[in-house]
Each structure stands twice: as C-alpha cells, then as structure tokens.
Amino acid sequence: MKFSLAALVVVLALAHGSQAAQSPEVEKLAQYFQDLSAQLTSTTQELVRKIQSETFLEDGKAQLQQIQAKLAPLADNMQAQLKPLAENMQAQLKPLVDNVQAQMEDLFRKVMDQTKALGQ
Fold this sequence. Notes:
Keywords: Signal. It is built from one helix and no strands. The protein has one helix spanning 2-119.
C-alpha cells in the first residue's frame, strides 16, 4: 500500500510536471485563439461598416433616381413653355440688336474718318 501510494505520488508529480511543461504551449495556443478572436471581431465590424456604407450609398442612389424621375417631366414641361417665350424675345430683340450694331459701326466709321482727317 505504501508502494502504491508512493507510485501514485510519483505519477501525479510526473503528470503535474508534464502539465507544467505543456503550460507554455497551452498559453501560446490560448493566445493564438485570443488573437484570432480579436481579428475575427475586427474584420466582422469592418465588414458591417462597409455593408452599411454600401447600403447608404445604394439608398442615396435610389432616392436620387426617384427625384430625377419626378423632375424630368417638370423640366420637359418648363422647357416646352420657355422655348416659345425665348423665341419670341429673340424675335423682338433681333431688330434692336441689329440697329445698335449698325449705329456702332457707323460711329466707328466716323471716328476712323475723323482720326484720318486729324492725321493729315
């Protein structure tokens, strides 16, 4: 019995010693899993942020397309209404512009003639 008790103590001491020897390996393994867990958490958070930003951009694009779809008929309508008005104004202003241009050309010609007369 003393022998078996001594053997048990020796076996326990060896087992404890082997666990103590494995302890750095277990610590390394535990550290590896902690690092892996931290990296997985970080990557997951980054992925969630990217998905949220892509969703935000897609929502923005969809809203802009809806606004564009609503504004396109209004813009076409405004253009259809303003085009005759612009053509009418252009028709009314063209004679005035032509008249001013003719007067400016006549004035320029007179100034040139007077400059020539002064030079002689």
